[in-house]
Write a structure and sequence with these properties.
By secondary structure, the chain is α+β, with helices and mostly antiparallel strands. It has one domain: Chorismate synthase AroC (Chorismate synthase, AroC fold). The protein contains 13 helices and 16 strands. The strands form five sheets. It has a five-stranded antiparallel sheet, sandwiched between helices. The protein has a five-stranded antiparallel sheet with strand order 7-6-8-14-9. Strands 10-11 form a two-stranded antiparallel ribbon. Strand 2 and strand 3 form a beta hairpin. Helix 4 crosses helix 13. It is globular, with a radius of gyration of 23 Å. The mean pLDDT is 91.
C-alpha cells in the first residue's frame, strides 16, 4: 500500500490497521538531543482516543505509545546525561490495539458484505480484492490518525523550542459556531483544556504518573505491562476521576468534553450533537488551526506552496475541505476588501487584516497562519441505508451495529493540529537550509 508516507525533510511513514496488532509511525528528520518520553506523547494522543466521553466511539482503546527506536538506551558516555534522548536515527513509535475482541470482529464480519455508505468499504474492496483489510476498515479507519498525532507531537515539540506554536479547537459542531476570539485567548484555553484532560485521564495517571510504565524499562518489559493492561481496561477506566462540568469550568475555565474556547458555544454544540445522535444519525463540524511565530518565506512556489501542503490534510479521514484564511468567503469580497494591506510601524511591517491566512503566493508572510478543516458527519449511523452486496451486487439495506462516533469533530482537532505541525516543521527545515546556503553563497 503506497501513500502512507509524507514529508521531504521531516518524513513520516505510518502502518497498521484498526484490528491488526496495532499501528506504527516512523519519523525521520527529528533532531538529535531531544528528550522524548512516552508520557508526553500520550498527553496528546489521549485527546483523540475513543471512549473518552459521550461524543466519541465506545471503543475503549487506551492508545498507549511505545517508543521502539531512535533514542539512546543509556548515556553514550558515562555521565553524559543523554539517555532517552533522540540520536538522529529514525524514531519509531508503536501503538498496540488493546481493545479488539471477537464480538466486535464478528459484527464487522456480519456486515462486511454490505459496504457502509460514506466509508471506503466499496472502493477499497475493488482496489485490493477479497483480502482487503475490512475488519474495522483497516487503514481507512479513523484509528490510523493516532499515528499522525504521535508524529505531529514530535514536530510540535521541535517547533515550540523554536518559538512556534501550533494549536487548534472546535470552531463549529452540528451547526453551532464558536464566536470570533483573539488567538492568544484561544491558545491559553487549549493549553488549559489539554491539562484538564491529562489530569482526568485514568491511563495517564495510573500508567505514567504512577510510574507503572517508565523510561527505565526495556521494550519487552513494557510489552509485559501492556499485556496486563489489556485485561484491565475496564478496571482502570472505572477509577477515572469524575468529569464534573461545573467544577472543571471553575477550575480550568474550559468545557469538560469539547475543546471550544467559548463555554456557552461548547454546551450548545454538545446538546445539539446529542439530539442528532438520539435519532440514530450523526453530525459534522469545523476545526480551526492556528500557527504563531513563523518566519517569513516558508513554502515553495507552484506544486509545494505552503497552503497546498496544508491542503494535504484532506488525507485525514472525514475531512472534506481545507480553507486558508478567509477561505471560500473571498468569493463575496472585492479585491480591496480581500487584500491584506500593509504599513510600516516602528520599523515593523503591520498588516491591516489577515484574509490570506498568513500565506501569499504559497509563502508565509510572518502573520499568524490560520486554516480550517471541514469534518463530515460520521458515516457509520444507526439508520437504514441503501447499499449492495459487494460480491453479488444485490441491493441491500444496512443499519450499523458496530461501534461508532456520534460526531468526529470532537476527536479530529488534535489530528489536524499535529498534521499542521508536521507540515510547518518540514517546510521550516527546508527554509532554514535554503537560507543558510543562500547567505553563505553570497558572502563577500
Amino acid at each position: 500500500m503506497i501513500g502512507c508516507h509524507t514529508g521531504r525533510c521531516f518524513q513520516v511513514t505510518v502502518a497498521g490497521g484498526s484490528y491488526q496488532d496495532g499501528l506504527s509511525t516512523i519519523i525521520q528528520g527529528n533532531p538529535p538531543g531531544m528528550e522524548i518520553l512516552e508520557q508526553e506523547i500520550y498527553g496528546d494522543m489521549l485527546l483523540r482516543k475513543p471512549g473518552a466521553d459521550e461524543l466519541s466511539s465506545p471503543r475503549k482503546e487506551p492508545d498507549l505509545p511505545i517508543i521502539y527506536s531512535g533514542i539512546n538506551a543509556a548515556d553514550t558516555v558515562e555521565g553524559a546525561g543523554n539517555k532517552n534522548h533522540t540520536n538522529g536515527t529514525p524514531l519509531t513509535i508503536l501503538i498496540p490495539n488493546l481493545d479488539r475482541h471477537f464480538i466486535h470482529i464478528k459484527q464487522y464480519q456480519d456486515t462486511n458484505r454490505t459496504p457502509r455508505p460514506g466509508h471506503a468499504s466499496y472502493a477499497s474492496f475493488l482496489k485490493y480484492g477479497p483480502n482487503d483489510d475490512a475488519i474495522g476498515a483497516g487503514m481507512f479507519s479513523g484509528r490510523y490518525t493516532s499515528t499522525i498525532v504521535a508524529a505531529g507531537y514530535v514536530a510540535k515539540k521541535v517547533l515550540r523550542k523554536l518559538g512556534i506554536n501550533v494549536f487548534s479547537y472546535v470552531k463549529e459542531a452540528a451547526g453551532v459556531k464558536c464566536p470570533q476570539m483573539d488567538p492568544s485567548t484561544i491558545f491559553d484555553c487549549t493549553q488549559r483544556y489539554k491539562q484538564m484532560r491529562c489530569d482526568h485521564d485514568p491511563f495517564y495517571q495510573q500508567i505514567y504518573v504512577s510510574g507503572r510504565i517508565n523510561p527505565e524499562m526495556r521494550f519487552l518489559e513494557k510489552a509485559r505491562i501492556f499485556a496486563e493492561i489489556e485485561g484491565q481496561i475496564d478496571e482502570i477506566r472505572d477509577k477515572a476521576p469524575k468529569m464534573d462540568e461545573n467544577q472543571i469550568a471553575e477550575k480550568y475555565g474550559v468545557h469538560h468534553i469539547l475543546c471550544c474556547p467559548d463555554l456557552q458555544a461548547a454546551k450548545e454544540m454538545v446538546k445539539t450533537c446529542n439530539a442528532i445522535t438520539k435519532t440514530g444519525d450523526s453530525s459534522g463540524g469545523v476545526v480551526e488551526i492556528m500557527v504563531t511565530g513563523t518566519p517569513v518565506g516558508l513554502g515553495e512556489p507552484v506544486f509545494s506552496k505552503l497552503d497546498a501542503e496544508l491542503g494535504k490534510m484532506l488525507g485525514i479521514g472525514a475531512i472534506k475541505a481545507v480553507e486558508v484564511g478567509a477561505g471560500v468567503a473571498v468569493k463575496d469580497m472585492t479585491g480591496h476588501q480581500c487584500n491584506d494591506q500593509m504599513r510600516s510601524q516602528d520599523g515593523k511591517v503591520i498588516f491591516d487584516s489577515n484574509n490570506a491566512g498568513g500565506i501569499t503566493g504559497g509563502l508565509s508572510t510572518g502573520q499568524d497562519i490560520i486554516c480550517r478543516v471541514t469534518v463530515k458527519p460520521t458515516p457509520t449511523i444507526d439508520k437504514d441505508q441503501h447499499t449492495i452486496d459487494k460480491y453479488t451486487k444485490e441491493n441491500k439495506a444496512l443499519s450499523a451495529i458496530t461501534r461508532r462516533d456520534p460526531t468526529i469533530v470532537g476527536r479530529i482537532w488534535p489530528v489536524a493540529e499535529n498534521y499542521t505541525a508536521m507540515v510547518i516543521l518540514d517546510n521550516l527545515m527546508g527554509h532554514y537550509g535554503y537560507q543558510t546556503i543562500k547567505d553563505k553563497y553570497n558572502q563577500k
